[in-house]
Amino acid sequence: MGFLLSKSMDANFKKQQEFMLHNGRLQMERQILMQNQMRERQMAMQIAWSREFVKYFGSFFTLASVGLTVGAMKRKKPSLLAPIVPLGFILAFQMDSAYGTLIYRIRGEAESIMESEHDRLDLPQGTPSFESIEKARRARSSLSSFLEK
């Protein structure tokens, strides 16, 4: 009788373990999907911001270029055209960021760094562990309870 009860409990225990493993896997998959969606939304906002910036800066650059060119021609001072060069570089960078291949080049460089220079990615004092986080939490909670007194 005890053997049958033990066998039944073992089977239930294994089923429960499998359920917990499956549930944990589902939860992790959901977290990964959620984090990826948040990353995609942040990237979309950043690209949209770049495109909006290009509209405003492009307008400014056009007006400034026309004004500086007219001023240089009227005053016969070609040095007035000098600001167009750095402003042009800024506009070119923003255009590349908003509409060009900058994001792909950055991604490629990041992948290269992760593969060949992984040691540059190490955090100071290493990766946080449960123990280090718990130690900091306890220190903060003891400090806040000390300050309340």
UniProtKB/TrEMBL annotation:
InterPro entries: Plg-R(KT)
Pfam family, one: DUF2368
Keywords, comma-separated and alphabetical: Membrane, Transmembrane, Transmembrane helix
Keyword RNA-binding in annotation: no
Transmembrane segments: 53-72, 84-104
Keyword Transmembrane applies: yes
Gene Ontology biological process: positive regulation of plasminogen activation
Any one annotated GO CC term: plasma membrane
PANTHER family: PLASMINOGEN RECEPTOR (KT)
Protein name in UniProt: Plasminogen receptor, C-terminal lysine transmembrane protein
Organism: Sparus aurata
Gene label: PLGRKT
